[in-house]
Model the fold of this input.
Amino acid sequence: MELQIEDKLVKVIKFTEGNICDRCLGRNFSKSVAGSGNLERGEYLRNKLEASNQNIPKTGSCYICNDLFESLDKMTNNVVEVLKDKQIHFSNFLVGSRVDSEILKREEQIHKTFDIDVENIKKEINREIGKELSLRLSKEVEFDNPNVVLMVDFKTGKVDIQINPIFIESRYRKLIRGIPQTKWPCNKCKGKGCEKCNYTGKMYAETVEELISEDAIKAAKGASAKFHGAGREDIDVKMLGKGRTFVLEIKEPKIRDIDLKKLVETVNKHAMGKVEISEMKFVAKNRRAVIKESSRDTYKIYKATVELENEVDNSLLDSLKSMKIINQRTPIRVSHRRADKIRTREIRQLEYTKVDSKLLELVIECEGGLYIKELISSDENRSQPSVAGMLKTGARCVQLDVLDVNI
Done:
């Protein structure tokens, strides 16, 4: 052993009056002394001191950890019992720990006094419990995206389990009007429940989110779910075609490997005639942000039925096809909850069919984020150009469907 290391070792032993456990001793020399672990390293150092008659026998609790490591097996058993009791299904995990702050202070004091730069005690605790659990449960330790985080509290002896969510991607088609995508809190009670909302706290009895998530929560034995859609359509608008992409986040799922094919069948049976979903797949957490961000970069196809105030000459109707770049100020109907700004969106293609003298059917392929109803009405000239402006008569969207959302 190098003299410098031996000198520091002797000083640590004297500082603690020999009352330092082999794990804490080994950990403080983990960067300078070889060994397969801190326990083996500490035993080696203790033997070296003994051989040179410099050892001070341990007669009391460890100065740093207060012999915390002697309760490692007991705490590991607690973790196994809690997992068994809660019947949580998972394939990987990560261990965290809480220890008395005085332990951390004493360890830091040793580090500062003797200029030691090594891992702290919590990392060793987490690693040792993790290794034992991995063997006993046949599960892997996962640092980046664990299924569950097992928090072992050495102050209380309790074990807390954080079950991380699962994320499932699919597409939905909304086959009827009058259903919002997500919960719309009652505008009178703000979601608390009142006579107006029949004490449900919401404006509408059903939502796309609820029709899908209810069965998913049940299948995964989850606590709740959050719906992340790639944009949204208005309540009175159908979502047709291939449907709109969404990611369903199921929180605290006790079952992670749910049968997605069966779940699709269950949801479609439950929501028959209202909402229909396509094939589901598990995705990573970041997918929810990706679909939200990409929704504005996509092109969407709408079919709008437009009622005109006056009859329009056919030559004017052809002018609608010339609309390309649309500047829209935040619509009046959403101005109470959206920032007042000008948005520029592109129309890729517009086709029209004259149903009768005052009724048109428009098929519009455009950039995501274009307000179609306002494109038609002009929204008091906040949308430029507009269908009403081009046709020089009042125009109103009386029915709207989303035919496709291309992501």
Remarks:
- The longest strand covers residues 342-356.
- The longest helix spans residues 121-137.
- The mean pLDDT is 94.
- The radius of gyration is 33 Å.
